[in-house]
Structures are given as C-alpha cells and as structure tokens.
Amino acid sequence: MVHIKTNTQIDAMREAGRVVAQILTRAREVAAVGVTPRQLDEAAREVLSKAGATSPFLNYKPHFAPTPFPAVICVSVNDAVVHGIPSAEPLRDGDLVSVDAGALLDGWAGDSAISFTVGEARPEDTRLIATANEALESGIAAAVVGNRIGDIAHAIGTVCRDAGYGILEGYGGHGIGRSMHEDPSVPNEGRPGRGMVLRHGMVLAIEPMLLAGGLDEFRHDRDGWTLRTTDGSRASHAEHTVAITNEGPRVLTAL
C-alpha cells in the first residue's frame, strides 16, 4: 500500500531529511586518509544524538540478513556497492567511499546517500561519481505529478547505460514515510509510461547505484550485508528522499 502524505507531514519529513543531510555532511568532513569507517559512524551517532533523532539502520534486520545491522550508517568502499558495515580498516589514498544514512525524527524517516573520494581521486572515479549524481538528478526531474514510476526508472537507467555503467541488479529506490521502506519500489531502469501514476503526497527515496565495470551482477560479503561487484570494479551510490508535489519534486534530504 502506498501512503499519501499531507503537506504538513511532508514538512515533518523535511525535518528528518535535514538530519540526514547533516549526517552526510559531517561524514564527508571527517573522512580522510587514515580515518576508519567506524569513526564516520561515531560522527553520525553524534549528529543523531544532538538532533534528538534515531537511526532506522541500527538493528535493522530484513529477511536476507543473517544479523541485525550494527551501525547507524552504511559505509561502502571501492568495490562495495551498498550496505557496507563500518569497519576499523583505515581509509587509503584514492579510496572511493559511499555513505548511506537515515534518520527517524518525530515518527518520520529520511534516507540519503553520497559518494566521494578520500585523498587524490582517480579520473575514472570522478566520472563515476558525477554520473551517479547526474542519474539521481534525472530521476528527480522525472518525479512529477502525472508521470509514472517507469519515467523515473527510465531517466535513471538512460544516464547510467549511456555512460557504459552497470546497474545493481534487483535493487533500487522505494517509498518512505513512517518507516524507511514503504511501497512502491522505484527501479533504476525501466520503460517510460509504465507503472504507478505519481500523485501529490507520494514520497520516494530515489537511489541509483552504478557499477563501473558495466556488469549488473554482485556478490555478498561473508558478513551477509555488504554487496560487492563481481568483477572488482568500483561503485557509486547517490540518493535523496523526494516528495512528489503539485509544485514539482521537493528534495527533503537536501542540505
């Protein structure tokens, strides 16, 4: 079931989204060569505590997971695409880091992700990150009243495929509201004009996940959470929580 939000509820979700934006901003500030992903998680916990918010990630246990998620953010490095558990291994010069963060505030959720390089960036990583951001912006631009879910999927997929990148198979965006994951699913590739019609009050987490090697396949780490590219190529993740409104898409997790 898709839950339609009132304008007041969308405003409340915006406040949760601000906390998510603050977490990602802080994680980007802290990240550097020699810093560990666990230190990024510690910084995120401080932001949540100061805002009076909690994390929808911490202790989350979907059906596929062998154990509850142990952190408040996901930190995926290099060939890790998504769901990386923050480790104690220091970041190295040139690492590509994706951070996915969520927040629950006054009963409403926000969800967003960014990717960046620590130290000196490889040109190919800069292009990959820029394309993920472009795909996200294209998806957001298609998130207008009267369009369909397939229009968002097509917009994202076109940017990704035209650049020669793979798209994480079986994963995409989702509805969001009182919980982090709600209906509908938002694929990262699809046919325009297909799927559910977008209405004022729908709120979606739109999140392209690009694989540099051009393949769509992934493998699970031993931790049961982290998804990695099968060919060892790097990956980039970009995400925003977006409200569909009569005035156009409203990005609720923008800084």
TrEMBL record:
Q: Which residues bind a divalent metal cation 1?
A: 100, 111, 239
Q: What is its EC number?
A: 3.4.11.18
User: Start and end of every Peptidase M24 domain?
Assistant: 12-246
**Per its UniProt record, what InterPro entries does this chain match?**
Creatinase/aminopeptidase-like, Pept_M24, Pept_M24_MAP, Pept_M24A_MAP1
Instruction: Keyword check for Membrane, yes or no.
Output: no
Question: Where is substrate annotated to bind?
Answer: 83, 181
Cofactor requirement: Co(2+); Zn(2+); Mn(2+); Fe(2+)
The record's comment on cofactor binding reads: Binds 2 divalent metal cations per subunit. Has a high-affinity and a low affinity metal-binding site. The true nature of the physiological cofactor is under debate. The enzyme is active with cobalt, zinc, manganese or divalent iron ions. Most likely, methionine aminopeptidases function as mononuclear Fe(2+)-metalloproteases under physiological conditions, and the catalytically relevant metal-binding site has been assigned to the histidine-containing high-affinity site.
- Top-rank taxon of the source lineage equals Bacteria
Q: What class of enzyme is it?
A: hydrolase
Instruction: Relate the protein's function as given in its record.
Output: Removes the N-terminal methionine from nascent proteins. The N-terminal methionine is often cleaved when the second residue in the primary sequence is small and uncharged (Met-Ala-, Cys, Gly, Pro, Ser, Thr, or Val). Requires deformylation of the N(alpha)-formylated initiator methionine before it can be hydrolyzed.
- Protein name (Swiss-Prot/TrEMBL): Methionine aminopeptidase
